[in-house]
Amino acid sequence: MRKDTPRLSWYDACSLSRKHPESIMSLKEYRRKRDFKITNEPAPTAKAKGKGKPIFVIQEHHATRLHYDFRLEADGALKSWAVTKEPTMDPKIRRLAIEVEDHPLEYATFHGDIPKGQYGAGHVEIWDSGTYNNVMATKDDPLTVAESIDAGHVEVELKGKKLEGKFVLVRIDERSGKPQWLLIKMKDEFAVEGAAAKPTAKTSAKPTSAKPTTKAAAKTTTKTTAKPAALPDEVRITSEDKVMFPDAGITKGEIVEYYRRVAPLMLPHLKDRPITIERYPDGLGEGKPSFWQKNTPAHYPAWIERVALESDDGKTINYTLVNNVETLLYLANQGAITFHVWTSRVDDLDRP
């Protein structure tokens, strides 16, 4: 489990203030799908209660297909939706959310591995958590979240570590056994166009100097850029739904999210190493263009670090340095699939 995974100590401290016996029937489907002698998921108990403001939790679920389980506390249970992609702070983006069975309040703290062969088998970790306000409830019309779900329109104000502000769930199809909804960020002071969730401290590496410090490096290094501009709060991702791997149906948004998750593992090996990338702007497939890129295009943002090296034929090449997660995500958004990294760093190019 990642070190930055949110812990729900506030839930563990819940006391005996709110009872919802009506939740017992709503959890019947949850019980039916699970063998609690095998799975380590929590079995519902009559003792589960909440305190203070209702909670929400989003669990990153690596099942057959990665998705994000969005849960709202209501009527003594967690009303739940399986969101097909990472929730976003961009009001222009709509996320498909499939309504699933209610989960017990105890599930708010669950993380770990659901055994193979069990319903929902795969790794689960807490992606975000916090409290929420029911925007639909007013003095004149105290509509509950459960009633809003029945009506097909839910508005809540989240206060989490990654998600903040007003969100709306709108039911678009209830003909199937699993009603389909859209999860949408509403326009407010927290909304950011082109942004996913707020980045965590773990993936906010500061740029380091690319200036070579040894004589050996200086022989092949003609210049380096000045101090990079400040890193952006978020990297704008375009055409998230573009299919990059047709056979597997993997989209660019999913590739970017993959690099976001593995960045803490990759960055120590990429830091201060000149890089060449192979770009596939339209994805892989017969007839689709691809090309190698050594020289960093002039239109790339100023915050991307570069190092200027002289090639064997005397030409100067401005190599990109992937020293932070923002640069990694920017390149992924550019369709970079293959990364060829130098075996040496810019402070000593003669030493692998």
Please give the largest β-sheet.
8 strands, antiparallel, barrel
Total helical elements: 7
Strand content: 25-35%
User: What is the domain tally?
Assistant: 2
Q: What coarse outline follows from CA principal-axis ratios?
A: elongated
User: Segments where pLDDT lies below 50 for 5+ residues?
Assistant: 1-25, 199-226
Number of strand elements: 17
SSE string, helix = H, strand = E? HHHEEEEEEHEEEHEEEHEEEEHE
Radius of gyration: 24 Å
Give helix % range: 10-25%
Average pLDDT metric: 81
Question: Span from first to last CA?
Answer: 32 Å
SS-based class: alpha+beta
How are the strands of the biggest sheet laid out side by side?
Answer: 1-2-3-4-9-8-7-6
Write the layout of secondary structure elements.
Blueprint (H helix, E strand, L loop, with lengths): L8 H4 L10 H4 L1 H5 L22 E8 L3 E9 L2 E7 L10 E11 L7 E3 L7 E13 L10 H7 L1 E8 L3 E10 L6 E6 L29 H6 E4 L18 E3 L4 E2 H19 L3 E6 L11 E3 L12 E5 L5 E6 L3 H9 L2 E6 L11
Task: Characterize the structure shown.
By secondary structure, the chain is of the alpha+beta class. It has 2 domains: 9-185, no CATH class; 201-341, no CATH class. The protein is 15% helix and 31% strand. The protein contains 7 helices and 17 strands. It has helices spanning 9-12, 23-26, 28-32, 145-151, 215-220, 252-270, 325-333; strands at 55-62, 66-74, 77-83, 94-104, 112-114, 122-134, 153-160, 164-173, 180-185, 221-224, 243-245, 250-251, 274-279, 291-293, 306-310, 316-321, 336-341. The strands form 3 sheets. An 8-stranded antiparallel beta barrel has the order 1-2-3-4-9-8-7-6. Strands 10, 13, 14, 15, 16 and 17 form a 6-stranded antiparallel beta sheet that branches. A two-stranded antiparallel ribbon has the order 11-12. A hairpin with a 5-residue loop joins β15 (306-310) and β16. α6 (252-270) crosses α7 (325-333). It is elongated. It starts with 8 loop residues before the first helix and ends in an 11-residue tail after the last strand. Mean pLDDT is 81; it is low at 1-25 and 199-226.
